[in-house]
Amino acid sequence: MIDHIGLTVADYARSRAFYERALAPLGYRLVMELTPEQTGGSYHGGGFGDGKPDFWIGAGRDGQTPTTSMHVAFAANSRAAVDAFHAAALAAGARDNGAPGLRPDYHANYYGAFVIDPDGHNIEAVCHLPEDASR
């Protein structure tokens, strides 16, 4: 089991604002922040979750910037939440990387949407429930 994951971002304030908006429809919020003063260095980060921080973003230590894009998929409890994530992420400045819809090549009920965040990371929301069970 994965406990948490972190992405390096180039501009923490920009990415924090983006993720606060994009993840709100999925029930995620900023639950913890770490400042350079707290970490004894240049790291500034924030943890998002629905209770405990399990998705972290942070400005790289000692000027480190993202060099490789990552893919992160967030579970959604309904197809409507996937749609709302996609709309919120685009409104927050993401680029579309796959409109909400079924991806039957993955499995019959795979309903996902993909966006590219401000640092080029491929961020997805996915619901695995049948349409009638996800309302």
From TrEMBL:
Residues 1-128 form the VOC domain. It comes from the Bacteria. InterPro entries: Glyas_Bleomycin-R_OHBP_Dase (IPR029068), Glyas_Fos-R_dOase_dom (IPR004360), VOC_core (IPR037523). This is VOC family protein.
